[in-house]
Amino acid sequence: MVTLPALLLPILLSAVIVFVVSSIIHMALPWHKNDFPKVPDEARFRAAVGPLAIPPGEYMVPRCNSMAEMKAPEFKEKMTQGPVMIMTVMPNGMPGMSRALGLWFVYLVVVSIFAAYVASHGLGPDAPYLKVFQLVGASAFMGYALALWQGVIWYHGAARRAFLSTVDGLIYACFAAGTFGWLWPR
Predict the structure, then answer these.
(1) How far apart, in Å, do the first and last CA atoms of the chain sit?
(2) Model-level pTM?
(3) Taking CA atoms, which of 5, 20, 91, 111 is between 20 and 30 Å from 64?
């Protein structure tokens, strides 16, 4: 068995490499530029919603408080009339990238730690490169991509965005797996 401390270098280096790859994908490639389309008549929407001063958070409209209320004719009418939406309200102002990038890097390290954990229990020292690639790649892919589809299934999220992010996750997993295969203890 290989210990996690012995995998510290591939854990950290794979996170750095995936961080760079994800930056290139999101800054240089065009496939995410239409992930969030504009609301029709944005000015009117902003004028109607802005005065409500909705605090940052996630909301559902309409929203019932119980299963009994969900069955009530009044709630069913609200659902029929619409609008029906799930929305994320962010703080006003330009978003700060440093906090998001820092949290993204922490997330990448966490995925690498779990992939290392799985591989360390399934492979010994001197494991062949392709076996390391296979186990780390599958584990990392699960961490990068599979949960994206819950939003599509349950909350009508954009399947195109989830698909493209799944492709991103496959690319990230391959780079992480390649890093582990290269640096696996021999």
Answers:
(1) 12
(2) 0.89
(3) 91
